[in-house]
């Protein structure tokens, strides 16, 4: 009956230990090493010792988990600090740069004129290649 449990992988830790320690069961060398590592990991997760030392095995994953936890806490603290400092040093109201509305209107007109001239230059730059492409397609 144990063989069907073994095939279905329904063995608990004690049964796996018994199979591993049974010398009548042939185990390939590489599989034996993998089995030993698996048993060590399982026993460390359960807080037991596989090899009978009575002392729980150290959990290296516990250190990694703690390091990840502290790293995420530090990242959250840095994020909150940067948002808080950004909020502190941002002016509440935008500063008015023009006290004279006529001067502001003149600046807007100048900016729109520059935009219009640059757009016209862009259209002229595209017009010649577009015309060449059209002529090439007509001749094709």
What does this structure look like?
The protein folds into two domains: 2-58, no CATH class; 98-140. It starts with a helix and ends with a helix. With 140 residues, the chain is mostly helical. The chain has helices spanning 2-8, 13-21, 29-46, 60-88, 101-139. The longest helix is centred in the C-terminal third of the chain and has 39 residues, at 101-139.
Give a short overview:
With 140 residues, this protein is mostly helical.
Please supply descriptive tags for the structure shown above:
mainly alpha; 5 helices; elongated
Q: For the residues shown, what is the average pLDDT? A: 76
How many beta-strand elements?
Answer: 0
Strand and helix order: HHHHH
Molecular shape? elongated
Question: What is the count of distinct domains?
Answer: 2
Distance between the termini: 81 Å
Radius of gyration: 37 Å
Number of helices: 5
Q: How much beta, percentage-wise?
A: under 5%
Which consecutive residue ranges, at least 5 long each, have pLDDT under 50? 48-57
Percent range for helical residues?
A: over 70%
Question: What's the story with the biggest beta sheet?
Answer: none
Topology:
Layout: H1 2-8, H2 13-21, H3 29-46, H4 60-88, H5 101-139
């Amino acid at each position: 009956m144990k063989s069907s449990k073994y095939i279905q992988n329904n063995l608990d830790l004690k049964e796996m230990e018994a199979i591993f320690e049974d010398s009548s069961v042939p185990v390939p060398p590489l599989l034996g090493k993998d089995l030993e590592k698996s048993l060590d990991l399982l026993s460390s997760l359960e807080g037991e010792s596989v090899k009978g030392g009575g002392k729980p095995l150290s959990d290296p994953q516990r250190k990694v988990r703690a390091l990840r936890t502290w790293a995420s806490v530090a990242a959250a603290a840095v994020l909150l600090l940067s948002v808080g400092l950004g909020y502190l040093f941002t002016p509440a109201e935008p500063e008015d740069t023009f006290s004279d509305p006529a001067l502001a209107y003149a600046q807007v007109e100048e900016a729109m004129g520059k935009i219009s001239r640059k757009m016209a230059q862009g259209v002229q730059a595209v017009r010649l290649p577009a015309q060449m492409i059209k002529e090439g397609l007509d001749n094709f």
